Each structure stands twice: as C-alpha cells, then as structure tokens.
Amino acid sequence: MKITDIDIDLLNTFRKGTVIPATPLALTKDRKLDERCQKALVRYYIDCGVGGIAIGVHSTQFDIREHGMYESLLTLVSKEIDSWSGLQNKKILKIAGVCGKTEQAVGEASFAVSAGYHAALVSLSALKDNCLDDLIKHCRRIAPIMPIIGFYMQTSVGGIVLPFEFWKEFASIPNVLGIKAAPFDRYKTFDVVRAICESGKEDDITLYTGNDDNIIIDLLTEYRIETAKGAKCMRIKGGLLGHWCVWTKKAVELLDEIHTIIASGKNIPAELLTRAVQVTDSNAAFFDSRNNFSGCIPGLHEVLFRQGLMTNVLCLNTEEVLSDGQKDEISRVYRSYPHLNDDEFIRMNLNKWLM
User: Fold this and answer.
1) Cα(214)–Cα(166) distance, rounded to whole angstroms?
2) Quick one: which of 235, 267, 249 has its CA closest to 340?
C-alpha cells in the first residue's frame, strides 16, 4: 500500500493537520475486551470531529500483544470506524501501532493493511540494543507494506534516543507519511524538524506532536532552519496524542482555533499562551508526571471513567494503577480548568454511543 493509495480527502486532512487520539483499551472487570465501551470511544472521537484514530499504540497498552488481543482489537475498531463514520458521512484515517522486532512488526503491518488501516505508527522500543543502521533497515522493511509514521517516543515510557542522524536517514525512506515527535524534550524535537528540513522532505513528511506536555506551543511554532540549500520553514501540523483521547471535543476546537490564527497572520493572543500551560498542567495530572509517568494510562482511564465512557480504570498489567494522590490531582485540574473539559458534550451523547 502506497501513500497515493490513501483517499485524497483523508490525505489532505492529514497534511493540513488534524486531531488523532491515541485510543485507550476498554476492559471489563475480568480484564477482557469491553466491546461496548471500545465502540463507544470510537463513536465519541468521530462525533468530536477528529480526522484520524490510532489504535495498538502506547495508550492502548503494548501488552495487548502478549494477551493475544492485537488482531481482534484492530478488527473491531476498524469495523466500527467504518460503520459510525459512514452514518455520519465522515472519513477517518486509520492508524495502527506496529511494534516488536522486525518479523513481528512486518506481520503486524501486513495484518493492519488487511484490516483496512491506512498507516503504521512504528515503535522502535524493542530494538533499543540495535545500532542506528539496524533501526533504519527495520523501517525499510515495513515501509513497502504500508505508509509509515515515525515515532520518537519518550524514554520514560520505553522509547529510545533517536538522534538527528537517524531522522535524516529515516526521511529518505520511501512511503514515509509523517513523524510523531514525542520525546518530551525540546532539543530532541528540534532534531526531528531539522533533519526533515536538511533532507529536503519538508513538503513530503508531515509533522505531528506527541509532546503531550507542550501541545499548544508545538502547534503555534514556526521553525525557520538554515540548511545547506537555504532557509526552510516548517510547522508541526496536528497532534497524535494520548492526551487527546480525553477532552477530545475541546481538542478539536483548539486545533481549529490555532489553524485559524496561523492562517490570519495575526499575533498570538496572550490568553492562548496561558491556556498552553493550563493544558500542560492538566497533562501532568493525567500522565502522572510527578511519578515519572507510571500512572499515565490509568490516568487517562480515570477521566474516561468519570465521564461514563469506561466502566473502570483497569489495565492489562495488574500493577499498572493510579499513583497515590493522582485522583486528587485530576480532580484539581477539573476544578481549575473547567473550560478544558467536554463533559457536557459527552452527557448529551453518551446514551447513543453506548447503545
């Protein structure tokens, strides 16, 4: 599958920049797939106005593979996207997380194509002991199967350091659709942008932020980089974020607002910069930054549980739980920033999503 095989409307939406929630896994009390809630999440995201949905990624829990849930989960989500988006006359880009050593990753990508996915978000965590050449070879094995999105994942949750040299070489791989920059580090994020500009692929590879701690600033910033071929300008266009799997309606409104401001050429409102740190503070509570992100997935579950989209906060790993005080922190940001949540939107629609 090639980039040119993607529906032109979907491709244009991705290139413009859109909201792509990194979808969590809904479980029953017995830690089995909760199909009703999983479908409700898909319906919620589509009705919020997202342009894409990612599944099988970090927020979904990489453990789904060990539990034999990868294929059944991706199939369920793909079918529900088609069903609900068809009713709404919408088009949704489907992104599958692809992990593991090369043979596993190739198998997952092949399955994702057969299940109707458009692109693979490639995690390199399983290759942390390999050299950079091996990492590039790994990506080159996956790219002919389907369009790939590079993933710079923060080291605190299993990512590995990927320097400028890696990203410059990565940009030369055919069938690269985009890159999700999520190192939670401004220096490393700059490495990614500079590498694309130096490679001359700034018009071919679309950047998405995965820096949940710096969402608004990432989206507002224009990079101006001097290269051997002259000055290049580039922007991070959208977000593929775990943070955006909650309060998603407000995320869609936020990205639309940012795109409008950028298109107008007007100065950035001071209020938006204030909102930027409010979103970051909210993320600190959701992702449990004070405990080195140990409660990041249960934290997202807690928000969705409070909203009625999940029936519990369970993870596949029984030791992956909310940290002490994390519930209180989530309650604090709820009280502090009521304008950031979309609880009312969910209350108005929850029954139809759960039907």
Assistant:
1) 23
2) 249
Work out the burial of residue 40: count CB atoms within 10 Å of its CB; fewer than 13 is exposed, 13-18 middle, 19 or more buried: buried
pTM: predicted TM-score of the whole model, two decimal places? 0.97
Token couple for 232? 């290049």
Residue % of the chain over a pLDDT of 70: 100
Distance of CA 178 to the CA centre of its chain: 12
Distance, CA of 179 to CA of 288 (rounded, Å)? 25
Rounded to 10 deg, the angle between the 70-88 and 35-48 helix axes is 40
Residue 54 is inside which H or E element, if any?
strand 52-55
Average pLDDT, integer, range 186-202? 97
Residue 154: Cβ-neighbour burial (10 angstroms; 0-12, 13-18, 19+):
buried
Q: How far is CA 22 from the centre of its chain?
A: 4
H-assigned helices in the chain: 8-16, 35-48, 70-88, 102-114, 132-142, 164-170, 186-199, 215-220, 248-264, 270-287, 296-307, 326-336, 343-353
pLDDT in tens, 280-331: 999 999 999 999 999 999 999 999 999 999 999 999 999 999 999 999 999 9
Contacts of 195 (CB under 8 A, 6+ apart): 164, 165, 166, 167, 168, 170, 171
Beta bridge partners of residue 239, listed in sequence order: 19, 209
- 64-75 tens-digit pLDDT: 999 999 999 999
Residue 156 is predicted with a pLDDT of 86
Across 76-92, average pLDDT = 96
31 torsion bin: left (phi>0), alpha (psi -120 to 50), beta (else): left
Of 84, 157, 91, 90, give the one whose Cα is nearest residue 123: 157
- For every residue of 267-333, DSSP letters joined together read PPPHHHHHHHHHHHHHHHHHHTGGGTTTTHHHHHHHHHHHHTS-S----SSTT--PPTTHHHHHHHH
Say yes or no to pLDDT of 184 above 90: yes
